[in-house]
Amino acid sequence: MEQRNQTPVSEFILLGLSEEGELQPLLLWLFLSMYLVAFSGNLLIVLAIVMDSCLHTPMYFFLANLSFVDICFTSTTIPKMLWNIQTQSKVITYTGCLSQMYFFMLFAGLDNFLLTVMAYDRFVAICHPLHYTVIMNPKFCCILLLVCWVLSVLDSLLQDLMVLQLSFCTQIEIPHFFCELNQVIQLACSDTFFNNLAIYLASGFLGVLPLTSILFSYSRIVTSVLKISSSGGKYKAFSTCGSHLLVVSLFYGTGFGVYLSSAPSQNSRTTAMASVTYTVVTPMLNPFIYGLRNRDIKLALRKLFS
Known about the structure:
3-stranded mixed beta sheet
């Protein structure tokens, strides 16, 4: 076999979304604005729910956790990207890259599971309203949240430990704005079969199964809503579900497009641009989709500011 030059890797080069110098100020202000909107919007949702005792219900409990996770999710990648643009440096250390991958996969997994739990919460509320408070009791909600954390931690830890076993050659340029798992694996000199296998298995177990659960929940919800005689009741149910389905479509649609392909991409910059949707745009839109369209959240925000 051909021997390839292998050296201990101490850093990677993040090429970002564009290498054109005149676009860097535009990217800086664009992503800074989106990050501030996402951070402040989700923080307001968390504070409004925590401060208003009327919102201490399962639905808003999971919404507050989703908003907190979205803050962490965007903070894992965007501040480093902004720092690189501002300092005109594209370097990220090997340790920093592994840490970024770990926390990115952790919070992406939490987003995934929380969306699933929120679909289940709506399923119980609409299909079994008389048993809702019994089923979705505080203890059960905490158990669901704990399971979300445990599964996400185990998956991200496994993926990170498998990357640690890889050796890298002199090609250390990542055509992305953060250390994305697929892109890092493609730089390895050693065999990546088990890494790619782990990605496919994780995509199936942590992606397909939750999405299937969401679709099943909503199929039951639609069946129950169609049986409601009043048009007002139908509209209220569908408006609540519509917000959640919109976020699910954005998150899964772009996420699967990136993670289901572990082969070298013919256009890595296109993949990086698609990643912007679920790493920045979706967390930025969540406060508007979930919060500002919700009467209870609006009242809670007014109380918070007053």
